[in-house]
Specification:
Elements lengths: L4 E6 L7 H15 L3 E5 L19 H11 L2 E7 L7 H8 L15 E8 L2 H17 L3 E2 L4 E4 L14 H26 L21 H9 L1
Parallel strand pairs: 1-2, 1-3, 3-4, 4-5, 4-6
């Protein structure tokens, strides 16, 4: 059983959108593996434009930040808007500035990313943006990121009959989720290490923690 906490975030406000359905599908797969999941729909992300302090106390923004603080893994799903992620999702992720944890931002948290759109070029750049934001938050974007088209009849091809392209997308998402869950399980089981303290430096810039002496000794 995977006793980790996985937060899944949908960046679309449109009801029954491909983005929303993909997020729900991913949550179901994580729950099947024993992880505790918290899905934030687009409707739950309608926070004010970020500025420090807005997430303090009760309210939707505060609930989102508290969920991120407890997260062992994160899954982001965004529609492609003009070649990048939705403003809704970007604003929500800006609230990570209010995180209060021993780690720095989302350091070491695996992040799985799915970009949804009409064409390959837009989804590729959207996926790259999500991974860039993940790195900036000191998280660990999984080796595999996923792009998929929006489907009119069965968005994402997640239920019923599916085309070869839809089956491929589901397979890719399954692999991506296994990468999230694997790292998240280790995070949940591990004790957070104490951050390294900066070494003392004397007036002329020499390190006084013994490291310089050790390096000189090893070089002889």
């Amino acid at each position: 059983m995977n006793a980790s906490n996985i937060v899944l975030v949908s960046g679309s406000l449109r009801a029954k959108s491909t983005t929303e359905r993909v997020t729900t599908w991913c949550a179901s797969r994580c729950a099947e593996e024993g992880a505790a999941t918290r899905v934030f729909t687009g409707a739950e992300l309608q926070f004010p434009f970020y500025r420090p302090g807005l997430s303090e106390g009760p309210g939707a923004a505060g609930e989102f930040v508290r969920a991120l603080e407890r997260a062992d893994g994160l899954v982001l799903v965004s529609p492609t808007y003009h070649g990048t992620i939705s403003g809704l999702l970007k604003n929500a992720l800006d609230y990570a500035n209010d995180l209060v944890t021993p780690r720095m931002f989302l350091e070491g948290v695996p992040v799985g990313c799915v970009a949804v759109g009409a064409g390959a070029q837009g989804t590729a750049s959207t996926l790259a943006t999500m991974r860039t934001v993940g790195h900036a938050l000191r998280a660990w974007p999984t080796p595999l990121g996923v792009t998929t088209r929006a489907w009119e009849d069965d968005p994402g091809g997640l239920t019923g009959a599916a085309s070869d392209e839809q089956i491929h997308a589901r397979t890719q998402m399954t692999v991506m989720l296994s990468q999230v869950l694997g790292m998240a399980a280790r995070n949940a089981a591990a004790t957070r290490p104490t951050p390294l303290q900066p070494a003392a430096v004397d007036w002329n810039g020499s390190r006084s923690d013994g490291l310089r002496r050790d390096c000189l000794r090893n070089s002889n």
